[in-house]
Amino acid sequence: MSSPAERYAQARVRAARQASAAGRFADGLGFQLDDFQVRALDTVQEGDGVLVAAPTGAGKTVVGEFAVFLALATGRKAFYTTPIKALSNQKYHDLVARHGVENVGLLTGDSSINGEAPVVVMTTEVLRNMMYSSSPTLTGLGYVVMDEVHYLADRFRGAVWEEVIIHLPESVQVVSLSATVSNAEEFGDWLRTVRGNTEVIVAEHRPVPLWQHMMVGTQMFDLFVTDGGAEGSTRVNPALLQRIEQAERATGWTREDAGGPRGRRGAVRGRYADHRGRDDRRGGRGGRGRADRSDRGRRPDDVVPLADRGALPGGVASRAQVVDRLDREGLLPAITFIFSRAGCDAAVGQLLGRGMRLVPEEEGRRIRELVAERIAEVDPADLGVLGYHDFVEGLARGFAAHHAGMLPLFREIVEELFTAGRVRAVFATETLALGINMPARSVVLEKLVKFNGETHAPVTPAEYTQLTGRAGRRGIDVEGHAVVLWRRGVDPVEVAGLASTRTYPLRSSFRPSSNMAVNLVAQYGRPAAHELLQSSFAQFQADRSVVGLTRRLKENQEALEGYEEAMACDRGDFREYGRLRHELSELEKKQARRRQASRRADIAVALDELGVGDVVRLEGSRKGTMAVVLPTSRAKGTGEPTALTSNGSLHTLTVAGFRDVPDVIGTLKVPSSFNARSPKARKDLASALREKVSEPLPGRSGRGGGSRGDGGDDGDAPAYRSSLETRVDELRAQLRAHPSHTCPDREEHARWAARWWQVRRETDDLQRRVSERTNTVAKTFERICDLLSTLGYLTPDGLAVTEEGQRLRRIYTELDLVVAEALRRGSWQRLSGADLAAVVSALVHEARGDDVGEARMPGVEVEEALGEIGAIWREVSTLKVEHRLEPDREPDPGIAWMVHRWASGRGLEEVLRDGTLSAGDFVRRCKQVVDLLGQIAQAADPPVARTARRASSAVLRGVVAADRLD
User: Fold this and answer.
1) How many CB atoms lie within 10 A of CB 456?
2) How far does Cα 755 stand from its chain's mean position?
3) How many CA atoms lie within 13 A of 27 on its CB side?
4) What is d(CA 7, CA 585) in angstroms, rounded to the nearest whole number?
5) What is the DSSP letter of 892?
């Protein structure tokens, strides 16, 4: 028991804390702070920076809100930065409710509210642009809160976070809030390097425990069980493994609503269903239903009870069954992550078809009224194409979709209703997990494979943590629940691995851009900018890795010296003898590889000789059984033509795709007007391919593999092999003549020599890696500056910004140099507002996967301007490659026609007709067009600037403007 003196001292500490700013702030929260929150508040109050890394839902935003509280209390400004507009809007409303509308502002790409307020919520890009333009709004800035700071790992936008952290004035306190990452201390060390005193506070504990489950059929199992005893070890649930084994042994399945369309038949589900009806899945208690026929002939332990079977192939539970099970278990509200926009919309349709209702009818009526108020600004004529009627019907029944393809206004309504607990089930893509505050009691993952923009890849531990972190609402739920649906190929042990990996490393994605380079040179000068970039987190991590590599280099050097001593021979120079043996071994391996490569060379030549219209049979391709070669711009000798498969997919014919020399099995005339970007053109040609070429044609194999003769050797190969064999013979002779060859300990020496050569190769590789990682960011910056000098944006010596460079400083888009060059050359002088909007769309649009429409041109002026843009892009890309820089992506005019029609005043339904873009994607692209038009208005000469402003006004109307805050 503590002494009276100790209790008195503790009482004084508590009293002092309650009287402090942190104490007053805590008193107004209405709940007890956790230890990590108390430590973080004390750090901020003492004037130091802080990095708080804690799980989703742990309450780390309290620390950011305290910085806002301190700013208002001390008469300074606070900027609260977020990675996405939706989170900015959400945080703006939270702070307005706490501090009043007069004290809080909002600045995003398309919203500007009270921007000179003492507290401003903004996207991180807005703050970066402010700093580069030396905005007077920065005057009096005392605190910057960087919410979701782990976004600096994002390969597209992450560099902005590092730019802000590096360039903020030293007087500004930075409060960084991050998800739990495994290298928080490393990140904190970097923050101390660039920002001064920074406390790192890591909280691993989730305030709401998260339980992991798997659903097999309609049964839900705990993923883990803990054994009794002193050890209390945790392992994968044996009952789950047994149930999965039982499901895998089952040889058939029967759909509960066999004979009817999916999602449109069967009993009504949900707590508030209009009619409960008979639950067919239970099959009744008194007898066997018709579906039980599939059980005949099976072992008793293979038979899965009807009540436990899923309605989908393989016994997987349908979406209606999953939601119904969660509802009966009291696990709603829930977010089901479906890695497909179409899948999210289909889920809503399936629940509607089942008559499911998750909220009372009276609540549904109130939801309809709220939605009607929120969409009042949307043209009623546009509601049909927006899918409004299914959207509002689902909301009124307590469920909805949420994905980037939806109208932003619709997403905001879903977020508002779900956060308030008025919507019980949301089907969402992974974008919902990125920062928006929409916690649920449960999270469901339908699959553990997702498309990452390039290929279908397994969900990573970082992604799993981010997704399941939404489960469990602090102050509402006692525990959260993560549910993974089992299907064939899902290994519960792998799921357990994902669930057990609670942290992941934070990796910098920082890389200089042309815009960044001119801004840095303008503000700091080139030498100082060079040194400044050395302080980036990217270089910090590279340098740390170099420290480890350098240590290994030193160890290798010592090992090499030891091996030299061990292989010493008294009869001669065994190091020289070892070199001869090593060279002979490598040449013999090369001979073997040459023999193996002979067949690949035959295939490569055959592919190179294929002509337009030649049809070849594919080997083991999921895209079709055959393909027709398309017109391409490949150079002779590349050997990899582009073809269209019988399924209508574009496919590159590569050497790796063939086990043997491909035979030409037919020919097909490819129309001269064929456009590979047009889905219709691809579909028509694939249809013609299937109709006209069905069997291999005799006598055509000569063009595939026989052109090179039976031996398959080209004219140079025999001479090369003869030279190689001659050198092998020479080395063998030299070995036999070497004094060490007759040494009785030769093989013992040789073993040490082999180790020496192995370490020598490792050492050479380490030296190469050290060279590549040293000053990597600064080297890239120097190459960019050299390029900018060549183009005239920097002076010839690269030390100062030219007048054209000042223009480039105001352009922040990915294709910044293309825009600057177009402005300098006057490419857009003759365009109307609608024309300019259409041209600018090509600079922001990037098609998703195969979602590529034919690039229709709205007029000659636009077509010519886009042609000039393409020529500029090719010139810039060529120069970038010459300067050893990554070329930019190609402009994509796929939505130029749509944007032109919208800017010309056409209705949304007419604009989207025959297009491949959803309404939500179109609105998002239009907002990006408006943002770039705003930059052009700031950077261009007066005539083009006026056109840009007119174009911006023409695009920012109707549904595009509907989700802006008033």
Assistant:
1) 10
2) 43
3) 10
4) 79
5) -
Give the 3-state secondary structure of residue 457.
Answer: strand
* pLDDT attached to residue 712: 41
CA pair distance 215, 232, nearest whole angstrom: 25
Element counts in the chain: helices (H) and strands (E): 34, 24
Segments in 59-119 forming alpha helices (H): 61-74, 85-99
Q: Smallest Cα–Cα separation from 535: which of 870, 866, 165, 788?
A: 165
3 state DSSP class of 83: coil
How would you classify residue 488: left for phi > 0, otherwise alpha for psi between -120 and 50, otherwise beta? Answer: beta
pTM listed for this prediction: 0.69
Q: Quote the Cα angle for 407-410-411, to 5°.
A: 90
For residues 486 and 250, give the distance between their C-alpha atoms in angstroms, rounded to a whole number. 14
d(CA 402, CA 429): 7
- Give the span between the Cα atoms of 245 and 866, in whole angstroms: 59
d(CA 689, CA 840): 37
Fill in the DSSP letter of residue 697: P
Residues 474 and 437 sit within 8 Å (Cβ to Cβ) = no
pLDDT for position 773: 64
Sign of CA dihedral 354, 360, 366, 367: negative
- Residues 428 and 338 sit within 8 Å (Cβ to Cβ): yes
Tokens for 304?
């899965």
- Torsion, CA 264, CA 268, CA 269, CA 275, rounded to 10: 160
310 secondary structure, DSSP code: -
Q: How far apart are the first and last CA of the chain?
A: 60
Cα–Cα distance, 348 to 408 (Å, whole number):
18
**Which span out of 296-300, 472-476, 486-490 was modeled with the highest average pLDDT?**
486-490
- The phi, psi pair for 618, rounded to 5°, reads -90, 155
Mean residue pLDDT of the chain comes to: 80
Which residue has better confidence, 231 or 250? 250
Residue 508's alpha-carbon distances to 164, 187, 813, 953, in angstroms, are 14, 10, 20, 37
Torsion angles phi and psi, residue 442, rounded to 5? -135, 150
Residue reference for tokens 């780390």: 60
Q: What are phi and psi of 914, to 5 degrees?
A: 65, 10
User: Does the structure show a pLDDT above 60 at 239?
Assistant: yes
Summarize the chain as % helix, strand, coil (round to 5). 50, 10, 35
Asked whether 828 and 862 are in contact (CB, 8 A), the reply is no
With CA atoms as reference, report the closest residue to 269 among 278, 261, 260.
278
Reduced to 3 states (helix: H, G, I; strand: E, B; else coil), residue 608 is: helix
DSSP state, residue 440: B
Structural element, H or E, at residue 427: strand 425-428
For residue 799, pLDDT over 60 is answered with: yes
The per-residue DSSP string of 712-777 comes to ---THHHHHHHHHHHHHHHHHHHHHHSGGGG-TTHHHHHHHHHHHHHHHHHHHHHHHHHHHHTTHH
Cα separation, 524 vs 535, in Å, equals 14
Read off the pLDDT of residues 862-886 as tens digits, 9 standing for 90 and up: 999 999 999 999 999 999 999 989 8
The per-residue pLDDT for range 802-828, each reduced to its tens digit, is 999 999 999 988 899 999 999 999 999
Give the torsion through C-alpha atoms of 163, 165, 170, 172, to 10 deg: 120
> CA-to-CA distance for 10 and 919, rounded, in angstroms?
61
Could you tell me if 832 and 943 are in contact, meaning their C-beta atoms sit under 8 angstroms apart?
no
